[in-house]
Amino acid sequence: MKKLIFFFLLTSLCLPLLAQQHEIDSLYTALKTEKEDTNKVNTLNQLSENLWGIGKYDTSKVYSNQAIALGQKLSYLKGLCKSYRNLGIISSLTGNYPQALAYYFKGLPLAEQIGDKRGAASFLGNTGIIYDEQSNYAQAIVCYQKALVLYKEIDNKRGISGILSCIGVVYKEQKNYKPALVYDSNSLAIDIAINNKRGIERNYSNIGLIYSELKNTPKALEFSIKALVISREIGNRNGEAISLENIGSEYLDEKKYALTKAYNDSALTLAKSIGSKEVLRDCYGNKAVVDSAMGKMKEALEDFKYYISYRDSMKNEENTKKLVSEQMQYDFDKKQAAEKAEQDKKDTIAAADKHKQQIITASVGLGLFLVLIFSGLLLNRFRITQRQKVIIERQKALVEEKNKEMHDSITYAKRLQDAILPPLSTIKKHLPESFVLYKPKDIVAGDFYWMEQTESALFIAAADCTGHGVPGAMVSVVCSNALNRTVKEFKIRDTGKILDKTRELVLETFEKSESNVQDGMDISLASLTPSEGGIHIQWSGAFNSLWYVQNGEMKELAADKQPIGKTDNPKPFTTYTITLPNGDGKGGAMLYLFTDGYADQFGGPKGKKFKYKTLQEKLLAIANENMDTQKELLNETFENWKGSLEQVDDVLIIGIRV
Fold first, then answer.
1. Is 520 in a helix, a strand, or coil?
2. Cα separations in angstroms, 351 against 362, 363, 528
3. Is the CATH number of domain 420-657 3.60.40.10?
């Protein structure tokens, strides 16, 4: 899962790591001799800032708290603002968003009170980042726009650049990539002009992620690697961890598992050392996919558990409640302060005129009393309405959060399943005249296609596991792994014996469960070997037959009526052997391997099943067309037949011309 680098709107630390350490040592020395005054508050804050900049969050927090204690004693508001900013950033970097928001809401009124526009813009920008992390994009944009106005008023180029980058993040997360790229590019231009290396690092990383979403892998890697170089140069360990994980994710999308593991392991080690929950979450997600693709199912399951644990610890129900509570408290305190200031003004005017306008004052007092009573009634009604609104919005947010968590889990299950499917480019490489029509009913599927090249033959199969959706996908991982072990580990080449051994391995896996698992797989498995007489084909099937068209005639090899799984009377699977010539004057014979989803689809004018006979007629009619045309015609026929009805099962048809 690739991650954005956010802009934290505090003084950017652009020094190399050694230079930063030298400055930290100097600050430690200064603290030993400084008096209990505002200079010491500033030194404590600067030391805290340098420490979180190199990932030493716990130590940084200690010095910020010392600065707050002394700042409160001296009533030094400017120093308190910086302390609250430091603590808010540390909380954000370690995933404690409610605590971060609490610090920002403490600091913002102080910055506004002393007229510190830069400080107020910083608090608004960082608050926007937290709303963005919680997918509250509308509230994030409101905060960013307010911060941008303040930065432009004081002509703070670094701040303007950071806010432009944050707005780009919002557009990117809403999959609106064109404006996202514009905002990030404008931000990068400003950072290059002012030599803001932390900003350059941030924009390189975020632009790389946009290119990743646009499937431009070379560009994505180019910018992510640039970001990694800058992160290491300035000693930004959190940015380095994010860039390493982003590069690993890019290689994961390309199924380059060795490179993925190298970068992901480096990111994981660094994230553990600095306590970055976000990077840990994403690294364990990537690790689960890699281990699954390499057949390490036990390790993949453990990785996935860690991913869920870190994800839930950062976005749980309690966090959402606290964020809402902090926002309401801030809004209420701000409103009360404004009302108090207005009332103080009225009291001063009334006191000055009291000796001249006794009667008027009495009338005004009575009027105010009536207004207060009326206002009290309105306020009571308003509070009741607000409480009802909060309850409704909270329930809505909880439902949306649960739906999002479920969708995230299913999406990760899809990545696990994608790891077991051979890339279509690999199938085309070995079988140029072929097509795969694959239409899962849900995000993940029980159907899967499988291919393995051995020293003597090419194996290809269309398989249908029990169920569809997540349950079917989990069974498909077990069955695909059993096929791989049978061919690679046990070196079995006869298709019937392959299915026998696969059934044995599947049953062995399910027998480990304490419950009675009845799941299994239907399959059509073919072995293709070039020979002097043409193509030598060996085939076996469990419930799913093999159809082939030769000389304009549809022929069938019937499957055994037993599954790859538990059955009452198991028998050895039958192995069929045929040889087809290379071309028969009509473009060669066509082989079709398939599952039952296409034939079982309800539709048409009467809402009935499509049926196998109709599918045979369709395949016979299009057998002489090229592969892309056959796939397009089959898909068009299926969609027209289904119409507005729901797809009832996963659909898989593989066509091969020999």
1. coil
2. 12, 15, 102
3. yes
Distances 231 to 7, 12, 94, 247 between C-alpha atoms, Å: 14, 13, 18, 13
Q: Which residue has the higher pLDDT, 15 or 307?
A: 307
Sorted by where each begins, the domain ranges of the chain are 1-7+15-155, 318-416, 420-657
Instruction: Out of 270-279, 329-338, 646-655, pick the least confident.
Output: 329-338
Single out the residue of 541, 537, 526 nearest to residue 580, CA to CA. 537
Per-residue pLDDT, 228: 92
CATH of 1-7+15-155, one of 1.10.3210.10, 3.30.450.40, 1.25.40.10, 2.40.110.10: 1.25.40.10
Using alpha carbons, select from 437, 433, 438 the residue that is nearest to residue 627. Answer: 433
State residue 321's pLDDT score: 44
**Amino acid found at 413:** A
Give the HSE-up count for residue 454: Cα atoms under 13 Å, Cβ half-sphere.
Answer: 19
d(CA 242, CA 149): 30
Which helix (DSSP H) or strand (DSSP E) does residue 608 occupy?
strand 608-609
Quick check: helix, strand or coil at residue 386?
helix
- Sorted by sequence, the CB contacts under 8 Å of residue 316 that are 6+ apart come out as none
Distance, in Å, from the CA atom of 303 to the CA atom of 305, rounded to the nearest integer, reads 5
